[in-house]
Amino acid sequence: MALERSDVEKIAHLARLGLNEADLPRTTDALNSILGLVDQMQAVDTDGIEPLAHPLEARQRLRADVVTESNQRDRYQAIAPATDSGLYLVPKVIE
Amino acid sequence: MQWEVVIGLEIHTQLATQSKIFSGSATTFGSEPNTQASLIDLGMPGVLPVLNQEAVRMACMFGLAIDAEIGQHNVFARKNYFYPDLPKGYQISQMELPIVGKGHLDIALEDGTVKRIGITRAHLEEDAGKSLHEDFSGSTGIDLNRAGTPLLEIVSEPEMRSAKEAVAYVKAIHALVRYLGICDGNMAEGSLRCDCNVSIRPKGQAEFGTRCEIKNVNSFRFIERAINSEVQRQIDLIEDGGKVIQETRLYDPNKDETRSMRSKEEANDYRYFPDPDLLPVVIESAYLDDLRATLPELPPQKVERFQSQYGLSAYDANVLASSREQAEYFEKVAAIGGDAKLAANWVMVELGSLLNKLGVEIDQAPVSAEQLGGMLLRIRDNTISGKIAKTVFEAMAAGEGDADQIIEARGLKQVTDSGAIEKVLDEVLAANAEQVEQYRAADEAKRGKMFGFFVGQAMKASKGKANPQQVNQLLKSKLEG
Prior knowledge:
The complex is a heterodimer. Chain A is mainly alpha-helical. Chain A is 37% helix and 7% strand. In chain A, strands 1-2 form a two-stranded antiparallel ribbon. Chain B has three domains: 206 residues, no CATH class; 112 residues, no CATH class; 63 residues, Arc Repressor Mutant, subunit A (Orthogonal Bundle). Chain B starts with a strand and ends with a helix. Chains A and B meet through α3 and β2 of A and α1, β8 and β15 of B. β2 of chain A pairs antiparallel with β8 of chain B. Chain A: Heterotrimer of A, B and C subunits. Chain A: InterPro entries: Asp/Glu-ADT_sf_sub_c, GatC.
């Protein structure tokens, strides 16, 4: 399967990537060559093989339900572009 | 045209853990903004999530309680979307292999029948932060304290056929998670939130109509009203020749209507994929067996036991078992007072209306189960009548002490000395000689009401303290005589 320019525009929008006119054909080609590799891999017979969720043959370790973090707000907010009353400020997100 | 309503619900329950699902930040509600948001919750580069074992345990408890298959091998996935209250740009959730599979829950309907509602799945995920749109002149304020709070999202089958059934189902889930102790159920604080998927179809049609999702309804009453107003909107729309479009809507309680939320939203393209930061979670059957042994008695079993053990009606048993706290309170009162039916009445009627009036839950009741049980003992040994008991109950609620102290201090002990009662009756009859004549002249049918008049006068004269049974008995013989 090959991606069209419109597919790439849509994916770029979903990922909030600003691709310009010059980027679009280049990115479309690059993605299509990756998909070409995927197509080759599709030829392998995987019947009866369980999908792999993680490359490591390991299981998730769990942590105890204990509060270990203390309030570091001032340090974290020192690098924020804008804050007010302890809140992070962002451009208005509601119409 | 006859329409059938089809409702499926997604309920988000915040799990009552101390720390977040993937970080060691606290989950306390109402803290100063962003004081419980660590580097992990802020989505800083280079951090790794580590799963909270208590969130896993709570999800498993829920699964066991609804008789569901528990995913022994389950996987976390990233759900990708951009919104400022989700700093990573994705929410860690579960897609293909959720922790809780297909189960079911029985709900009691108003007509006394029981309906089984299928639960499609329940999965673990992290909550987002909060956006505050007011007060920041042109900006939105973001509080990430809630980001990363563990959620169990419980998805039902589209098997409810009215707003009332939907509310009954939400109430049953609410009671269940509180019985299990996995969620505090505080809807005002957002601990339990409900998305309602609503569609209509001509009665008898097999295919579903196009559905709308009403987001984040946060009270039982609003769930019922939001669904009813959305159903009416869809009926009006279709009957006027229009078409329902699949979209997300918000319910506005002030206007009692739903309105479209995100018109531009592209049909959910979340591009889920397994989260490479988290390994598969394996749940052993031995672990589940141990957990099963810790399951408390759940509402359906409790209702059954209340009927068989205490001889309560199905209705009373259902009311009393509707919360774990209330059931425990009732059983304590019944054990101390020694009369379950009397205990059930006092808990449901007098205590119920007191709590209603004060607007508090039973765990903050101003009258303890011990106090109420102690008072019932005094009713049963005839120290006080049921009527005086209401006075004693009010005094206990006002903090005047235990029943015995109040009866003593206020001199409320019932008069059972028949000589004393006879004296009062003689006075009453003498003062109402005319009525006595009328009574004696009246036929049997009319006497009942007139007799009540004398009882009332006698009780008034004794300040309510005369034993009512004795008053009845003695009065009868005096009037006949």
